[in-house]
Amino acid sequence: MAATESNPIIFYDITCAPDLPEAQAWSPNTLKARVALNYKRLPYKTIYIPYSEITPTLKSLGLTALEGQTGHKAFTLPIIIDPTPSGPKIVRDSAAIAHYLDATYPDPERTLFPPGSHALQELFYNHFNTQLSLYFISLYLPLVPSILDEESAEYFTRTRSAALGKPLGEVYPKGAELEKMWEEFRGAFGVLDSALQKNEVRHGGVGGDFVMGDKFTFADCVLVAFFIWMNKVEPDRSGWERVKGWHNGRWERLWNKSREFMQEK
């Protein structure tokens, strides 16, 4: 039986500090999957767990550590457990989850990877992971411990410092270096903006404010997830105030048109 309201997909996410409920659903990696689930209008139930419980929880499900981009193996979220006719199906990693949802719950009106878009979305994902994500890491990763409980904050700081090869507190740029990084960040987004301008009608495109023009896709899940992250870990939202005004307001338009897919469940 496919997922229903009475038997939903189980979605594992990372909790924040209990006194910061407004920061719930904060992780960009899990948010990519959450936004995809919301877009597909699939019934799901969130189980929030702290960092200290991720490894034992995934081990209890029979899972092993995954190797990341740096070669370091770790137990990571997101994962979903889908109640299929043949038994619970576990899917991990946000991109794999998105592909799985399209294949298992096909909907021509709400597909995350429309026919012919796989290669283009892979190029987008490569640009995001090799260019844009580097700035997000420097500017926002050091802010994450401030929204976690004490034990999770210690774990996050220790593991990210080890992965980055320097104390997490030294990752965030200071002084003139900070403004320089923001300018470089804007430039990296500018490369993406230049490509997306080809969607505009004046350039022979279909119009629209999504990565694929008039169709929401997994590429938009990625951008929206990181924009939400910015807003969750930075209370004054000063970074988002910058970004949403870049490139003739493109990113704010994308945010506004994606609002219905941002809900927390």
Automatic annotation (TrEMBL):
Residues 114-265 form the GST C-terminal domain. InterPro entries: Glutathione-S-Trfase_C-like (IPR010987), Glutathione-S-Trfase_C_sf (IPR036282), Glutathione_S-Trfase_N (IPR004045), GST_UstS-like_C (IPR054416), Thioredoxin-like_sf (IPR036249). Residues 17-109 form the GST N-terminal domain. Pfam families: GST_C_7, GST_N_2. Belongs to the GST superfamily. This is GST N-terminal domain-containing protein. The lineage of its organism: Eukaryota, Fungi, Dikarya, Basidiomycota, Agaricomycotina.
